[in-house]
Amino acid sequence: MAEPKIRFKNHHSDWERTVVDDVFELRNGYTPSKNVNQYWENGVIPWFRMEDIRANGGILSDSIQHITPQAVKGGGLFVPYSIILATTATIGVHAMIIADSLANQQFTNFSIRKSLIDKYDSYFIYYAFYKIDEWSLKNTNSGGLLSVDIKGLLKQPFLTPSKTEQQQIASYFKSLDVLIQSTTKKIASLKQLKSASLISMFPQAGETKPRVRFKGFEGDWENINLSEVFIERHEISTITESLPQLSFTIAEGVIKPEDRKSNKRDFLIKDIDTKKYLVTYRDDIIYNPANVIYGAIHKNSLCNGVVSPIYKIFYTDQNADFMECIVRKPSFIQEMTIFMEGTVKKLKTLKPESFLKMSAYISPSLEEQKKIGDFFHSLNIQITLETQRLDKLKQIKSACLDKMFV
């Protein structure tokens, strides 16, 4: 039977089978000559490129660049609610354009044949094109510029249900996309708040106290060397029940090995029964000497355990969340480049003794440190939870796209 694995209630009929060529008219995008100013100057017609999809997602109403009516060839503009599919270079990406517009030569435009417009829901077509994305990635012409096998694509089956079912499917995915977009915006807003707070709640260059403080705290902060507040931890151990093996990543810091998104570093965990590891305790500060300038410095927020000896570990009697803010500030990470050693042939690294020579302004009040640390810890938790929610929503969308279309 021609039906998807998951359907809405009260829909049981087979999906109608046709081919791409029967449903769509195809046109190629193009780039008007850059040497003709009248094609570009004061342009008002959207002209889409891959950059527009990267910046604004899959539903496009306007573009970054515009062209003038003089730049439009005899075929006219792409019609609203048609699809542009990347068929060369970065292939297997599509968007729906909802304005009279054009696109560059990387895209092929798919518009529903005029005689069939009333038969199809535009948003259903947009979501159905994820299947065509997948097909395009697997079916390219060899030789020269990478491109989709258009002749083969035109012959591909294109199955659709009744228009009522199309609209239900489209409505479901539009709701999912609204959740994805709102969660994405919330994450961006939280990260923006964190970035602004790192500037306002810590002394900047030439300053001795922050511009924004919790009520009840005044006075200058103290300029200290990190050696005054950090001690390197050298304890070693094999993996034990009380000291499980942990991994360390640039993005997430200390995590369980099974949570690592890439397992390409399995060479670090061979001979786990006898290999010696560095012990880390919760609230330690850990960094990767080679990648620290890319943000590979975090507080151990997970648990006691052991990590690869390639990392450097420190403990402190100051508030750990506060000190993590200090060492993860973009300005502080940038300053680390001055203290790194090495040549082009030998990878530059930040040695522990160099790290401890660095200086920073810190609050002399542990109570103020705690308030600041708690604030950023709470922000980090919110960002993590929203990021996990976003990942889950994307997984749901991907699974449903696979199971709700034929």
UniProtKB/TrEMBL annotation:
Signal peptide: none annotated. One of its GO terms (molecular function) is DNA binding. It comes from the Bacteria. Keywords: DNA-binding, Restriction system. Residues 13-192 form the Type I restriction modification DNA specificity domain. GO terms for biological process: DNA restriction-modification system. Belongs to the type-I restriction system S methylase family. This is Type I restriction modification DNA specificity domain-containing protein. It comes from Bacteroides uniformis. The lineage of its organism: Bacteria, Pseudomonadati, Bacteroidota, Bacteroidia, Bacteroidales.
